Amino acid sequence: MIAVITGDIINSQHADTEVWITKLKNLLEKWGSTPQTWEIYRGDEFQFKCNIDDVFWRFLAIKSLIKSQENLDVRIAIGIGDENFSSEKITESNGSAYVNSGRLLNDLKSDGHTVAIKTSNEPVNRDLNILLKWSSKDFDNWTMATAEIIHEMIMNQDITQEDLAKKFNISQSSISQRLKRANYELIVETNQYFRKKISEL
């Protein structure tokens, strides 16, 4: 089984494309090469495949990166399933993971939510989507400053609050307050729960 993330940038027409697209490309390049592992297409849509264990953390890395840009957000559909045809281009690959993710993004566009997951297991879908709806109430309201710090924590889990304080030129207590406001410890627990539920598929 693999995980496929299909997403699109919300409010992309109101932002400097070169800035966000360069940052998104740089992030995706850390995880694999284009166009086999990831691709950006139609201007503001993208697709990316990864290990199922990593998918929640990868989703949050993308979410925090885009939320750290002014006025932007991202819609993300997570599909878990098989890959029965692997093309040189991810957008031409196929399998239940791709179908689940692609169809789900269309559903998200119509229902107003910013993230959802679809697997072949309906009870798992129900449990994880309730979790995602609740947690998105936090994620969708991250300020740019909070999103920046969350992104640094996700991308470098060995980084200390002191390191972050130096990087952002603010006090360590300010870093601590932002992480508390963002419920960072709960985010880490949620990632562990997510991995456990998906491993049961």
Automatic annotation (TrEMBL):
Location of the HTH cro/C1-type domain: 150-177
Signal peptide: none
Pfam families: SatD
Protein name: SatD family protein
Source organism of the structure: Chryseobacterium oryctis
